[in-house]
Amino acid sequence: TRWASVFETTNEEELWEIVGDDLMAEEAKKEFKNAVRIIKKDDPCWWDYEWDYQVQENTLKHEARQEGLKEGREEGRNEEKLANALNFKKLGVDTLTISKATGLTIEQIENLK
């Protein structure tokens, strides 16, 4: 299985890790690496694998970005609620009314300075 996994590598570092130092001389490793490159380029399945890998990587990046944007929006809304509550508090609005208007807890409002 060790040798079969060379065709699943995505970069040279992974390839060298699989080949290791224990099985081949340096010159043989270079020839082997070149042979793997040729096979990968000629094998349509390899390109399918590469395409699938890129699609999966891009999908994960997109999902992570969307999650980051969602968290950012939620953080912004929370900051806005806190700012509004502080303004209400400075205007002398009672805590219960501020809580109903902002959705913040009484404790959150009382801790505002």
What does this structure look like?
The protein is mainly alpha-helical. It contains 5 helices and no strands. Helix 3 runs antiparallel to helix 4. The longest helix has 47 residues. The model has no long low-confidence stretch (mean pLDDT 80).
Q: Which labels suit this protein?
A:
single chain; 113 residues; mainly alpha; 5 helices; 0% strand
Task: Determine the fraction of residues in helical runs and give it as a percent range.
Answer: over 70%
User: How much of the residues is beta strand, in percent?
Assistant: under 5%
Largest sheet: none
Mean pLDDT score: 80
Radius of gyration: 29 Å
- List the total number of helices: 5
Number of strands: 0
Fold blueprint:
Elements lengths: L11 H8 L6 H17 L1 H47 L4 H8 L3 H5 L3
Helix pairs in contact: 3-4
Give a brief rundown of this model.
The protein has helices spanning 12-19, 26-42, 44-90, 95-102, 106-110. The protein is mostly helical. Helix 3 (44-90) runs antiparallel to helix 4 (95-102).
